[in-house]
Specification:
Protein name: NADH-quinone oxidoreductase subunit L
Structural class: mainly alpha
Number of strands: 4
Number of helices: 27
GO biological process, one term: ATP synthesis coupled electron transport
Strand order of the largest sheet: 1-2
Low-confidence stretches: none
Membrane topology: Multi-pass membrane protein
Radius of gyration: 31 Å
Shape: globular
InterPro entries: NADHpl_OxRdtase_5_subgr, ND/Mrp_TM, NU5C-like, Proton_antipo_N
Mean pLDDT: 91
Keywords: Membrane, Transmembrane, Transmembrane helix
Strand content: under 5%
Distance between the termini: 106 Å
Length: about 650
């Protein structure tokens, strides 16, 4: 096992070394050496992670790899340790492989960047390391360290083009929105420590059976685990861009496309899913919170899909599909199908990275243009990218035998087989979303690659991307084809119990994964029929009769504007939160800070200076004036004494 421990440490810390070397010495090494260093270390990390996965597949179990003593304060203890079980090892393998491909892709994509790019590659490695720290944590404090680390790295990468006001605003928005959710997460961690006595996973899970009937008084009396699970879920909502806390995700597209691929496929947004699965022993005992998770996840899937129908920007369309797919994963968590959630998280990493990197190839081909309505007829110009986008879209839509078919259908089957009203709600929303997903995915393909070129200049100058960009796209295409069928037996199939080996908890008798094989045939086929119908509708609207979308937009203009403006969430938050906050801030700034806090000392200073100026006039230096003043004073004093005698 020492070999496995060593490989695990290499997988986790190699990206950190890459970040430090490229970030601290990149200006001395130059861009070429910095790229080589970060990619070389990411290669070591990915190979080591695959090696550890091989060890864990041998039914090794759960181990803790000590790193360093960390926080010891009174009764609080949190050491820095790496938890090595199948949940963490599988995610580490996925993160490192996808991140390596994104690093390689960035060589070509950032080749024409005017400024030095060593910072960019160092930030990519930092992002990867922070995510690895999150998923390998052995306690909630260590997880929170990685949680905040991915938030910092996302801020740096989304705002990488800091000379663009829109990129800076998007970076700040992502950082602030996530801090709102993180407050609830931090309160949840604190409550776990106060009531369960530890932040270590093993100690928390061991203490759970002894506090099942505990309550917490907050606006009434509530079951303790419901309160904790809800607080953790709100934290997860922020990271995973669920409804009400989703507004940062589309704006994050202001960063370079490799950043979008890394955020949406392997880091950041998957952190919320991982948190809920890691805390599955606690979430299992919070049925009300699980219903809330299904409600939010199902509604988010539908919401994001409707917005994706009308977006003109190629990257934002794919971004909303991420938001929608994360909703599926939360539905799986809510019905207790944690294995299916992790399955979809893994397959989604391949085909979503593929779609984003494919979109990057399109953007590269048309000289940084992202408006799909200025493209068209590109399939002959960039055939490799065209084929890759078809593969990614087939996987996203859940068409057999592509990866998304195995994992997304498993989630919908689990929702139906949960035999709960909220589970059926998740199934209905998921099936409707399957139709909408196929519709907007082929809308993208038909607008970008088919029809007549809408901008002759862009079309004539279009060209295929360099090999450094196409190689990762090709490898991800293979993953999008085979990942589902290859992983299905282990994640949710006949070998799932031995594969997870206790890393994911489920109450005996309530494990919905065990009932998937009994799903009615019609129920299992509905998502596939919905996806095929969506593709057919897209063909009719954008190939056979391309005037239909414009006619619908005119006839249903209020609905069209409602969707185009993303259900007006940003405008609502602007009126309800941002403007009142600015007004209060201005009042405190001008009225309190400047007029009172600064005004009183400044007023006293002016009064003192004025009084001193008047007093100076009394000091004339004339003995006659002084004697006369003393005489007047003496007369006043004697008069007063005689009068009051």
């Amino acid at each position: 096992m020492q070999t496995a421990f060593f490989l695990f440490e290499v997988a986790v810390f190699a990206p950190l070394v890459g970040f430090l070397v490229a970030g601290c010495f990149g200006h001395l090494m130059g861009d070429g050496a910095a790229r080589f260093t970060t990619i070389g270390l990411m290669t070591c990390s990915a190979l080591a992670a695959i090696g550890v996965l091989g060890f864990e597949m041998g039914d090794v179990g759960t181990f803790v790899v000590p790193v360093v003593d960390w926080v010891h304060a009174a009764g609080f203890r949190a050491d820095w340790q790496l938890r090595m079980d199948m949940l963490s090892v599988s995610v580490v393998a996925m993160v490192t492989v996808v991140s390596l491909l994104v690093h390689v892709y960035s060589v070509g994509y950032m080749a024409h960047e005017a400024r030095p790019v060593y910072r960019f590659f160092s930030y990519l490695s930092l992002f990867t390391f922070a995510m690895l720290m999150l998923v390998t944590s052995d306690n909630l404090l260590q997880l929170f360290f990685g949680w905040e680390g991915v938030g910092l790295a996302s801020y740096l990468l989304i705002g990488y083009w800091y000379d663009r006001p829109s990129a800076c605003a998007a970076a700040i928005k992502a950082f602030v929105v996530n801090r709102v959710a993180d407050l609830f997460f931090l309160v949840g961690i604190s409550l776990i420590f106060i009531r369960l006595g530890s932040v270590s996973y093993e100690e928390i899970f061991a203490a759970i059976p002894y506090h099942v009937n505990d309550t917490f008084a907050l606006f009434g009396t509530h079951p303790l685990y419901e309160v904790i699970a809800t607080l953790l879920f709100i934290g997860a909502m922020g990271k995973s861009a669920q409804l009400f806390l989703h507004t940062w995700l589309p704006d994050a597209m202001e960063g370079p496309t490799p950043v979008s691929a890394l955020i949406h496929a392997a880091t950041m947004v998957t952190a919320g899913i991982f948190l809920m699965v890691r805390m599955s022993p606690l979430v299992e005992l919070a049925p009300v919170t699980r219903d809330l998770i299904v409600l939010v996840g199902g509604t988010t899937s539908f919401f994001a899909a409707t917005v994706g129908l009308v977006q003109p920007d190629i990257k934002r369309t794919i971004a909303y599909s991420t938001c929608s797919q994360l909703g599926y994963m939360f539905v799986a968590v809510g019905v207790g199908a944690y294995q299916a959630s992790m399955f979809h998280l893994t397959t989604h990493a391949f085909f979503k990275a593929l779609l984003f990197l494919g979109a990057g190839c399109v953007i590269h081909a048309v000289h940084d243009e992202q408006d799909m309505f200025r493209m068209g007829g590109l399939w002959r110009k960039i055939p490799f990218t065209y084929a890759a986008m078809w593969i990614g879209s087939l996987a996203l839509a859940g068409i057999f035998p592509f990866a998304g078919y195995w994992s997304k259908d498993a989630i919908l089957e689990a929702a139906w087989m949960s035999d709960s009203a909220m589970g059926h709600y998740g199934w209905v929303m998921g099936c409707v979303t399957a139709f909408l997903t196929a519709l907007y995915s082929w809308r993208l393909i038909f607008l970008v690659f088919h029809g007549k070129p809408r901008d002759a200049h862009l079309h004539d100058g279009a060209h295929e991307s360099p090999a450094s960009m196409l190689l990762p796209v090709g490898l991800l295409s293979v993953g999008a084809v085979v990942a589902g069928v290859a992983l299905e037996p282990f994640y949710i199939g006949s070998h799932q119990a031995a594969f997870w080996n206790g890393a994911i908890a489920a109450i005996p008798g309530h494990d919905v994964i065990e009932r998937l094989e009994h799903t009615p045939g019609f129920i299992a086929l509905v998502p596939t029929f919905a996806a095929i119908f969506g593709i057919a509708v897209a063909y009719v609207c954008y190939i056979a009769s391309p005037g239909i979308p414009a006619a619908l937009a005119r006839s249903l203009r209020p609905l069209y504007l409602f969707l185009l403006n993303k259900w007006y969430f940003d405008e609502l938050y602007d009126v309800a939160i941002i403007r009142p906050y600015r007004a209060i801030a201005r009042l405190l700034w001008k009225g309190v800070d400047e007029d009172v806090v600064e005004g009183i000392p400044e007023g006293l200073a002016r009064l003192t200076a004025g009084s001193a100026g008047q007093a100076v006039r009394i000091q004339t230096g004339s003995m006659a004036v002084y004697a006369f003043s003393m005489l007047i004073g003496l007369v006043v004093l004697l008069t007063t004494m005689l009068f009051f005698r």
